[in-house]
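User: Hi! I have a protein structure encoded as tokens and I'd like to know what sequence might fold into it. I'm fairly new to this, so please keep things simple.
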């Protein structure tokens, strides 16, 4: 808009001719600059109003389809009217300036009030997006938007069953949700999480937890609607039914970040007061380990290899869900040569494809029962059948009654120690004599966190501690978790473990062959006798292996205690 900064003023010069001289030509300008501050003050309401219209009103009209062009024309007309009033008055006169200013403020203010009143009545505008004429709220809102804008970027490639999921239009609510969902994923990966658990609950307790080395850590605080929106977003990407908030749904995605592809397994399930989504990253990587990478002690490896190489019989494999159970099953199964012998598995949800091994996927919604699938496969006399779960007595009995001279069966159970695994097996079969008859061995695995070697803190253990833990008194040094490192003599969060003090996990095992003596104890359910027989073999328990790892500086006494406490809590 054109603003006249300069006004023509009548100038009274009061010309006189100097006596005896030529007439002086008037050099003084006939124009005088209007004082600049008056113009600035007049411009002020226009600036504020213009910012409000372009930053808020215009976007609002666009977002809720209120007729952006129509409103744009109205605002422009009102703005011109206000300008005409403001600058049409003779500004140097005090009354002209005042009328111009007040007039502009009134006209622009009316525009704001009318727009706000009309759009707030409009049904297309959701309640939470009604305009409030509260300056502090506006400032707060703009700061929040700025922060969100900075954080809200979409950078991941997401591939679902229907192909790549295209990012939504920027500044749409869907874009914001996607950006937040990506933010949770990226933060989890940067923190080395293997899983994220997102909970949407009524009331308290919504948010994302990161599972790092098997331990849950608070990840991201989210409001219930935020968490629900993020869960729905990931479910939709994986082609899962967003409306189903009760049943267990399993899906898969490929997420590309900085050109690195990751497989993500999604499990959504209803929970009390809401919904939960677990995202597991690269499940194959987490469960596939060669026997040399399992972390077995040398004598344990020998015992396990002997057990694997002697044909027939049942070997019970134990671990905790999400705590090495599948890893143990896959690692031991893969110790058999799948090209020279017939190796099969029965699983509900195979996490990965095992090379050369026939994996039979059991469909829980199908007509067949698990035990029947196990039976029909045992009848084909496989050399090895790995049964990933023992859901009922019928399945356990099928295994116990199979031709165990011919077939080796691995029965995987959820238990924390070898002793508990055997007891669980006997209970599942329901007949101690039958359960013990074909039993050849038991393998239990637990996972313990590996100390971060970049920040672990050495200390001299007091002799009482060593005595209590039955560790050799000659140990001079143990380590505890750090989490911080000194950079230029200032403590900073350790960049390797992000301040957690641990990185990665170690598998620790109990491996016991079961011979005639052990079988006799099991048939009588003489658990103390079984313990004595196992001890005679001089093979270490999980607790003992964990302490050995602590003595080597690989883990901490605190971590060993945590492991035992979990064990005790389960009993
Ligand atoms: Zn560290």
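Assistant: Happy to help. Inverse folding works backwards from shape to sequence: for each of the 571 positions I chose a residue that suits the local structure. Here it is:
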């Amino acid at each position: 808009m054109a603003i006249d900064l300069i006004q023509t003023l009548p100038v009274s010069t009061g010309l006189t001719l100097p006596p005896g001289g030529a007439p002086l030509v008037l050099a003084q300008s006939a124009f005088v600059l209007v004082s600049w501050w008056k113009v600035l003050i007049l411009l002020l309401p226009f600036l504020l109003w213009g910012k409000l219209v372009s930053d808020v009103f215009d976007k609002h009209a666009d977002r809720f389809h209120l007729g952006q062009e129509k409103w744009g024309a109205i605002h422009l007309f009102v703005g011109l009217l206000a300008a005409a009033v403001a600058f049409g008055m003779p500004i140097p006169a005090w009354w002209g300036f005042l009328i111009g200013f007040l007039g502009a403020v009134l006209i622009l203010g009316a525009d704001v009030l009318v727009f706000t009143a009309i759009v707030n009545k409009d049904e297309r505008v959701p309640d939470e997006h009604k305009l409030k004429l509260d300056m502090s709220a506006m400032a707060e809102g703009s700061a929040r938007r700025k922060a969100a804008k900075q954080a809200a970027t979409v950078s991941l490639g997401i591939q679902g069953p229907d192909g790549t999921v295209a990012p939504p239009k920027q500044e749409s609510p869907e874009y914001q949700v996607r950006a937040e969902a990506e933010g949770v994923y990226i933060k989890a990966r940067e923190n080395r999480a293997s899983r994220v658990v997102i909970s949407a609950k009524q009331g308290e307790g919504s948010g994302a937890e990161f599972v790092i080395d098997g331990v849950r850590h608070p990840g991201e605080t989210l409001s219930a609607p935020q968490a629900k929106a993020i869960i729905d977003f990931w479910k939709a990407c994986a082609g899962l039914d967003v409306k189903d908030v009760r049943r267990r749904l399993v899906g898969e995605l490929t997420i590309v970040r900085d050109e690195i592809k990751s497989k993500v397994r999604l499990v959504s399930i209803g929970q009390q007061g809401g919904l939960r989504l677990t995202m597991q990253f690269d499940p194959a990587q987490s469960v596939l380990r060669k026997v040399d990478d399992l972390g077995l002690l040398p004598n344990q490896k020998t015992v396990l290899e002997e057990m694997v190489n002697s044909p027939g019989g049942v070997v019970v494999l134990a671990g905790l869900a999400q705590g090495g159970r599948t890893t143990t099953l896959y690692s031991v199964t893969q110790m058999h040569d799948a090209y020279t012998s017939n190796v099969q598995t029965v699983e509900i949800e195979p996490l990965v494809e095992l090379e050369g091994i026939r994996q039979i996927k059991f469909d829980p919604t199908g007509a067949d029962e698990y035990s029947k699938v196990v039976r029909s496969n045992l009848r084909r006399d496989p050399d090895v059948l790995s049964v990933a779960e023992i859901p009922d007595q019928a399945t356990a009995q099928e295994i116990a009654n199979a031709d165990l001279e011919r077939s080796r069966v691995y029965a995987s159970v959820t238990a924390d120690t070898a002793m508990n695994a055997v007891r669980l097996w006997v209970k599942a079969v329901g007949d101690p004599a039958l359960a013990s008859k074909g039993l050849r061995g038991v393998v239990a695995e637990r996972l313990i966190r590996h100390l971060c070697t970049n920040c672990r803190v050495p200390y001299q253990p007091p002799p009482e501690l060593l005595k209590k833990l039955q560790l050799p008194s000659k140990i001079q040094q143990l380590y505890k978790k750090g989490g911080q490192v000194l950079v230029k003599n200032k403590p900073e969060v350790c960049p390797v473990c992000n301040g957690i003090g641990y990185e990665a996990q170690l598998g620790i095992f109990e491996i016991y062959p079961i011979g005639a003596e052990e079988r006799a104890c099991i048939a009588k359910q003489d658990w103390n006798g079984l313990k004595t027989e196992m001890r005679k073999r001089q093979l270490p328990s999980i607790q003992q292996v964990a302490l050995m790892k602590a003595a080597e500086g690989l883990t901490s006494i605190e971590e060993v205690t945590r492991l035992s406490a979990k064990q005790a809590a389960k009993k």
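A useful reference point when you look it over: Residues 404 and 445 are 24 Å apart (CA to CA). Feel free to ask if any position seems puzzling.
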